[in-house]
């Protein structure tokens, strides 16, 4: 019987690892360019770290179990609670703002669908300790930067932004009951995602009726910030978050990123801890699931026992990003990483290849040779993926010479061994650290 991996997991063969490394390297380079430091936490945590503040949706998707000490444990579905825990543990000794990034492997027991798996990677960028909207704008700039680094343009994706603060102030200004605002968020979040009948069921379940339904419907109908402004015009003094989101958009414009970022009233986010600006990244046609999502969570660190500390961040998964890159033909072609293939003239004598390979590796050149004394033709077949080929052995080797061939141009020359090492080292590309 052949085993299969569990549903929703992936096997990464070398060609898949090359794509994953390409994605990780692009993420890491952007994080570095924006001044973020890397951190990591455990793959599993105490269950209540996730049940306390992340919200219903994520709790339903937890992989949890009892360990041998009868403790309730969960595989991490996100890293934000771990980050909050780590920030609380270091407390005031951390110089603010903290700008940290991580690429955790996460686990969610999701219903299987395109773009959603049960195990995936997610880049996280978070800024802790900065209350100003400039932190939110800087994160959006980082998202755009990395998407552009993948050669994606504003015609390929958009960042859709809203503000929970704005929504709650608007709802309150329009007379919506404060205690039902979390339920209103869930309904706004479902705009365009569920059938009208299902929406009616949500209203009924949450006890939202009459004029309160109308308030939500009016808000849902707003296609722009100006519509929102008009809706609450009579109560504008009760909606200071309007000025904040305006400031956010003027910063986005100063970054020169207006073509990438738009207001979208339906972006509320499923996680419970967001308090301010929230955003999601979608492909232009919205034909795929969200590529990234995040926002401001100014209360979470205090809720975890820390000092009141503002925070904002986002997570970008590798699954939908990969689908989009594939759709746009932006995945680099697979290339076997080895640079130089060493061919023995004489299949029964592997010693020159061994000593030549050892010296090349000392010089930082990646190389390989046939391990089982194959004939010349077979060795040439293996050499096809290499950038350069070195032919060692025979009379040339005895005279201290090596023939080298550039597999791109086909050019061949016989050179002294020392010169061969230098030439072969010239175009080598060590993997990124
Ligand atoms: P999230 O919206 O749950 O946010 O996830 C962010 C991204 O992770 C999604 O947009 C998607 O790309 C990816 N993702 C989520 N679930 C799956 C899945 N089952 N399969 C594949 N990819 C998935 C968070 O996790 C927040 N903790 C992000 C954050 C960081 N907020 C502040 N800081």
TrEMBL record:
CDD domains: HisRS-like_core, HisRS_anticodon. The keyword Nucleotide-binding applies. The keyword Amino-acid biosynthesis does not apply. Residues 1-332 form the Aminoacyl-transfer RNA synthetases class-II family profile domain. PROSITE patterns: AA_TRNA_LIGASE_II. Coiled coil: none annotated. Pfam families: HGTP_anticodon (PF03129), tRNA-synt_His (PF13393). Its EC number is 6.1.1.21. It catalyses: tRNA(His) + L-histidine + ATP = L-histidyl-tRNA(His) + AMP + diphosphate + H(+). One of its GO terms (cellular component) is cytoplasm. Keywords: Aminoacyl-tRNA synthetase, ATP-binding, Cytoplasm, Ligase, Nucleotide-binding, Protein biosynthesis. InterPro entries: aa-tRNA-synth_II (IPR006195), aa-tRNA-synth_II/BPL/LPL (IPR045864), Anticodon-bd (IPR004154), Anticodon-bd_dom_sf (IPR036621), His-tRNA-ligase (IPR015807), HisRS-like_core (IPR041715), HisRS/HisZ (IPR004516), HisRS_anticodon (IPR033656). SUPFAM superfamilies: Class II aaRS ABD-related (SSF52954), Class II aaRS and biotin synthetases (SSF55681). L-histidine binds at residues 78-80, 108, 122, 126, 269, 273-274. GO terms for biological process: histidyl-tRNA aminoacylation. GO terms for molecular function: ATP binding; histidine-tRNA ligase activity. It is found in: Cytoplasm. NCBIfam families: hisS. Belongs to the class-II aminoacyl-tRNA synthetase family. Homodimer. This is Histidine--tRNA ligase.
């Amino acid at each position: 019987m052949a085993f299969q991996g569990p549903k929703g997991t992936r096997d990464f063969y070398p060609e898949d690892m090359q794509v994953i490394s390409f994605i990780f390297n692009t993420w890491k380079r952007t994080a570095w360019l924006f001044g973020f430091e890397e951190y990591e936490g455990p793959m599993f945590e105490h269950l209540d770290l996730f049940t306390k503040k992340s919200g219903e949706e994520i709790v339903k998707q937890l992989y949890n179990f009892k360990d041998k000490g009868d403790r309730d444990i969960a595989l991490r579905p996100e890293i934000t609670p771990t980050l909050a825990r780590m920030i609380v543990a270091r407390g005031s000794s951390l110089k603010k703002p903290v700008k940290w990034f991580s690429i955790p492997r996460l686990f969610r027991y999701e219903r299987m669908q395109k773009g959603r798996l049960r195990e995936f990677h997610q880049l996280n960028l978070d800024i802790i300790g900065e209350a100003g909207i400039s932190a939110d704008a800087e994160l959006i700039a980082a998202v755009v930067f990395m998407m552009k680094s993948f050669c994606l343009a504003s015609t390929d994706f958009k960042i859709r932004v809203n503000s929970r603060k704005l929504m709650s102030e608007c709802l309150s200004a329009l007379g919506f009951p404060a205690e039902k605002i979390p339920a209103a968020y869930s309904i706004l979040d479902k705009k365009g995602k569920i059938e009208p009948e299902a929406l009616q069921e949500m209203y009924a379940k949450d006890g939202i009726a009459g004029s309160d339904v109308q308030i939500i419907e009016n808000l849902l109908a707003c296609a722009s910030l100006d519509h929102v402004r008009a809706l609450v015009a009579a109560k504008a003094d009760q909606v200071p978050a309007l000025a904040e989101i305006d400031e956010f958009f003027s910063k986005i414009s100063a970054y020169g990123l207006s073509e990438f970022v738009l207001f979208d009233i339906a972006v509320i986010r499923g996680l419970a801890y967001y308090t301010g600006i929230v955003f999601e990244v979608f492909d232009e046609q919205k034909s795929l699931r969200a590529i990234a999502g995040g926002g401001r969570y100014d209360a979470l660190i205090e809720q975890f026992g820390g000092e009141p500390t503002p925070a904002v961040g986002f997570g970008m998964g590798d699954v939908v990003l990969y689908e989009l890159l594939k759709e746009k033909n932006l995945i680099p072609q697979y290339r076997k990483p080895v640079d130089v293939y060493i061919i023995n003239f004489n299949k029964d004598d592997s010693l020159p290849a061994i000593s030549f390979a050892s010296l090349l590796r000392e010089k930082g050149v990646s190389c390989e040779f046939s391990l089982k004394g194959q004939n010349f033709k077979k060795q040439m077949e293996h050499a096809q993926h290499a950038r350069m080929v070195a032919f060692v052995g025979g009379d040339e080797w005895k005279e201290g010479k090596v023939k080298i061939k550039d597999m791109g141009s086909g050019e061949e020359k016989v050179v002294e061994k020392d010169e061969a090492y230098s030439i072969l080292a010239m175009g080598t590309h060590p993997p990124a650290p």
